[in-house]
Amino acid sequence: MPKHPSSSPILRFLYENSLLLIGGLLVLATLTGQFFTGWHDNNSDLQEMGLPQLSLGQYASSGHFLEATFENWESEFLQMGLYVVLTIWLRQRGSSESKKLYEEEEVDKEPDPDKYDAPRPVKRGGVAVGAVSSFPEYSVLHPVFWGVLATREGRGRSIQH
Question: Number of folded domains in the chain?
Answer without folding.
Answer: 2
